[in-house]
Design a protein that fits this description.
Strand 9 and strand 10 form a beta hairpin. Helix content is about 40%, strand content about 15%. The longest helix is centred in the last third of the chain and has 24 residues. The chain is an alpha+beta fold. The protein folds into 2 domains: about 220 residues, no CATH class; about 140 residues, Trna Endonuclease, Chain: A, domain 1 (3-Layer(aba) Sandwich).
């Protein structure tokens, strides 16, 4: 395209300036500045009412469980990532249900670009996103590539003509993985930026718009939104990605030479014990704790009563490995702090180990802004729960 491309995701003004250079009917319902601010703001879904059209009947009729999940996800993506979605339905976007192989595909088209698709049997989900937010997160070390690979997420450079050099195609093996992926801030920002950009361009598909399809998915999205609302954190968020599920020894241990299986099992057990002790300590003060934060794989994370965000790296000390574990734990927690800072999330960092024999480590950690705590001295843990 000859039009200018959007600015990096941390500059609303530059994105607004780029959008303002486009002549678009979209400016009848929003403005370049409002669209840029929406694209980079904390995401919220479009309200249920008004919807794009009326739907007569129960949206679940004729759909099995997998199909209902697919429709719910399609509606959620539409209501979360399409600008002014109710007012622009049929004018700047449409949702299609098409035959695909032996089943059906729900496909979102915004402007001239197909930006999202989900197979009704839930076997695959794909999403196009603007590249800048993901590149920025990767440059800052805030994307956990190992976690993406473990979940089966593919990140591919997308070669379709529109913004050919500036977007990614993300593929997920199932709906659950797609829901996890879409909760990652860079991914959702990339989806909003791309949909906003192409929505401000031409839309040659108005004749293919089916109001009942858009309305059905719109209603279906409430399934996901209601589930999120029931599990919603207090204002400011719980401060973690998921509940702590515990550590366990894998059935097959790593086939390493000089590998002490007994010591490995003892270390995993001690790690889990320390995590649970800390979670219980926080829970006793009315503070829920969990694992992970903004996609960064921290051991534990929580917010204290004043809203201050904490993360903790937990290291077990067994069989004389105290110095090794302290060095490793300090490096990890500093890395996590850097990754989260790249996402605009300042955190207070904690390193929790089984014990600390050398008092010099308190000074080493303090010099790096890290609170060092020992599992055998939990009387010093009070500052984790409230600002003093």
């Amino acid at each position: 395209m000859s039009s200018p491309t959007p600015a990096p995701p941390d500059d609303v003004g530059e994105l607004a300036d780029a959008l303002a250079q486009r002549q678009s009917r979209l400016w009848q319902v929003t403005s370049p500045g409002e669209l840029a601010a929406w694209a980079l703001a904390e995401p919220e879904p479009v309200p249920l009412d008004p919807g794009p059209a009326d739907f007569d009947g129960d949206w679940t009729d004729g759909l099995d469980g997998s199909q209902q999940a697919a429709w719910a996800l399609a509606g959620w993506v539409t209501r979360m990532t399409v600008p002014e979605a109710a007012a622009t339905a049929g004018r700047h976007w449409l949702l299609s249900r098409i035959h695909h192989g032996g089943g059906s595909l729900l496909r979102l088209t915004v402007g001239v670009l197909e930006t999202f698709g989900v197979l009704e049997d839930g076997a695959e989900v794909w999403l196009r996103v603007f590249a800048a937010p993901l590149d920025s997160a990767a440059d800052g070390g805030a994307l956990d590539a190992d976690e993406w690979e473990r979940r089966g997420v593919e990140l591919l450079r997308d070669g379709t003509k529109t913004l050919a050099d500036d977007k990614y195609l993300l593929r997920c093996p199932d709906i659950r993985t797609a829901q996890w992926l879409l909760r990652q801030p860079p991914v959702l920002a990339g989806a909003r930026m791309l949909n906003g950009w192409v929505a401000a361009g031409p839309f040659p598909f108005a004749g293919r718009y089916r109001p009942e399809t858009a309305a059905r998915a719109w209603l279906a999205a409430e399934t996901l939104l209601d589930a999120e609302s029931q599990a919603a954190p207090p204002i400011g968020g719980w401060g973690f990605d998921r509940p702590y599920a515990g550590s366990s020894v894998p059935v097959e241990l790593p086939p390493q030479r000089s590998f002490d299986a007994a010591a490995y099992r003892a270390g995993v057990s001690e790690h889990d014990r320390l995590c649970r002790v800390l979670v219980d300590h926080l829970t006793a003060s009315g503070i829920p704790a969990g694992a992970g934060l903004a996609g960064v794989n921290v051991d534990l994370a929580w917010r204290d009563t004043s809203g201050r965000q904490f993360i903790a790296e937990v290291k077990s000390v067994v069989d004389g490995n105290e110095v090794e574990q302290l060095r490793l734990g300090l490096g990890q927690v500093l890395e996590y702090r850097h990754r989260l800072a790249a996402l605009g999330m300042p955190v207070t960092v904690v390193l929790l180990v089984s014990r600390v024999s050398d008092p010099s480590w308190q000074q080493v950690c303090a010099a790096n802004g890290v609170a060092l705590l020992a599992g055998d001295a939990d009387a010093a843990w009070l500052p984790l729960t409230a600002r003093t």
